[in-house]
Design brief:
Layout (H helix, E strand, L loop, with lengths): L4 H16 L5 H8 L3 H13 L3 E4 L5 E4 L8 H9 L23 H17 L3 H4 L13
Antiparallel strand pairs: 1-2
């Protein structure tokens, strides 16, 4: 599975907010990760619509987590940004896309791999990803 850039930015944003435990601005996040403020702003807007963050306007404003970090799983974020049907190949969820599909064992193998992957991501919370020593300075930007 290759995640879209928006999913990557969403996960980074949530991890930052979970680690810092407070408000941050889109500008702070963009500067920390070295990414576009405009692109990140769109992702933050979507995170707000999905109920992950609250956008606070005005002096002292910014974005903050709405839910506890222990309640947000990587699997949920991936599904919310990538969609519910993330597949390694089209044949996994659609019939009749390949001439060998009726007798192909690969389809079942890939479906099981996808299931295991999402099961694993569903078990990883933002809380579990926090650096042990605390503080965003222990995170390494890409």
């Amino acid at each position: 599975m290759k995640l879209a850039l928006q999913t990557d930015y969403a996960l980074r944003t949530l991890l930052y907010l979970a680690t810092e435990r407070g408000r941050a601005t889109v500008g702070e996040l963009a500067a920390f990760y070295g990414i576009s403020v405009n692109h990140l702003g769109k992702v933050v807007h979507q995170l707000g619509r999905l109920g992950y963050v609250r956008n606070v306007r005005g002096p002292g404003g910014g974005i903050e987590l709405i839910r506890e970090a222990a309640q947000i799983t990587v699997g949920d974020v991936v599904r919310d940004f990538e969609g519910r049907n993330i597949h390694l190949l089209d044949c996994v969820d659609r019939p009749d896309v390949c001439v060998i599909q009726p007798g192909c064992a690969l389809r079942g193998v890939l479906a099981e791999a996808e299931r295991r992957q999402m099961d694993y991501l569903d078990g990883v919370t933002l809380e579990s990803l926090r650096p042990v020593s605390g503080g965003i300075v222990t995170l390494k930007a890409p």
